[in-house]
Design brief:
single chain, about 35% helix, alpha+beta, about 140 residues, globular, binds adenosine-5'-diphosphate, 5 strands, five-stranded antiparallel beta sheet, Heat Shock Protein 90, 4 helices
Length: about 140
């Protein structure tokens, strides 16, 4: 199961949030994990709107032998990020909420990888695996 949505305008984020929550819910994620996933995709999509003009988000339900989860890829063809290492350095605690988005996404999800090529764009892939808190309220 794979779905993809365009990101260009602020209101695209509204659709993306709604659709991703629905998928995560149907897949059996707990409310708390749904919130983490939605917050993450929302932050990544908002980075595209604010820092890169336009892009796409691809959402996929993933299955492995003994676990299942959700993978979200957000990509754009914007300017890339030249000081990425500095932005992601965890030792610096956030002075404000601003500039904390990517680090927060890394904290919220189980897997996080980012590639940014100057002048070419940014590619972020994040995944969340279901854990014992999930599937409690669904059969
Ligand atoms: N998709 C993107 N394209 C270009 N630059 C980006 C992108 N995402 C993030 N950035 C750069 O990385 C910085 C940190 O991003 P983030 O942690 O989300 O903080 P914020 O968006 O609040 O500035 C941004 O200020 C921006 O310079
Ligand atoms: Mg941001």
């Amino acid at each position: 199961m794979k779905r993809s949505f365009p990101i260009k305008y602020e209101w695209d984020i509204v659709t993306i949030r709604k659709e991703v929550r629905k998928l995560a819910n149907e897949h059996g994620f707990s409310e708390l994990n749904q919130a983490r996933i939605v917050q993450s995709v929302s932050e990544l999509a908002s980075n595209v709107v604010h820092h890169a003009e336009e892009g796409r988000v691809q959402v996929e339900l993933i299955e492995e032998e003994n676990r299942s989860g959700i993978n979200i890829i957000v990509r754009d063809f914007g300017p890339g990020i030249d000081d990425l290492d500095q932005i992601l350095r965890l030792s610096e605690s956030p002075a404000s909420v601003e500039g904390y988005g990517l680090k927060q996404v890394r904290e919220l999800m189980d897997e996080f990888s980012i590639r940014a090529v100057e002048g070419k764009g940014t590619y972020v892939s994040v995944s969340k695996w279901k854990d014992e808190s999930d599937d409690v309220f669904s059969e």
